């Protein structure tokens, strides 16, 4: 289950990923992200729910970096990332090695409610 939607009133992107089984899903998701962010203003915020995210073997691990580049190119300001602690290392290994990725603020939280609260307080 994937959901990508823009909340224009909050100037926020909601980005939920589930299991990705086919390569054509990767391009479709990136395209949907690009469409959604065009509805938002610069310095928008994002709730990213990755609790169910998984790539089937053989699919590109570079996918998450492409998503982050699309967000950066669209002038994102801050992200509240919902995931379990174990996911951090497997989905974002390049973040640990790079001083610039991601090039925006990311806070990790365990629930969607905490993500909303965190971003609402920062506006």
Oligomer description: single chain
If you consult CATH, what is the topology?
Transcription Regulator spoIIAA
C-alpha end-to-end distance: 29 Å
What is the N-to-C order of secondary-structure elements (H for helix, E for strand)? EEEHEEHEHHEH
The CATH architecture is: 2-Layer Sandwich
Helix content: 25-40%
Topology:
Elements: E1 3-7, E2 12-16, E3 19-20, H1 23-37, E4 44-49, E5 54-55, H2 63-73, E6 76-82, H3 85-91, H4 93-97, E7 105-109, H5 112-122
Parallel strand pairs: 2-4, 3-5, 4-6, 6-7
Antiparallel strand pairs: 1-2
Summarize the structure.
The protein has five helices and seven strands. The chain is α/β, with parallel strands linked by helices. The strands form two sheets. The protein has a five-stranded mixed β-sheet with strand order 1-2-4-6-7, with helices on both faces. A two-stranded parallel sheet has the order 3-5.
Structure description:
The chain is of the alpha/beta class and 123 residues long. It has a single domain, classed as STAS domain (Transcription Regulator spoIIAA), CATH 3.30.750. Helices cover 40% and strands 26% of the residues. The chain has helices spanning 23-37, 63-73, 85-91, 93-97, 112-122, and strands at 3-7, 12-16, 19-20, 44-49, 54-55, 76-82, 105-109. It has a five-stranded mixed beta sheet, sandwiched between helices. It has a two-stranded parallel sheet with strand order 3-5.
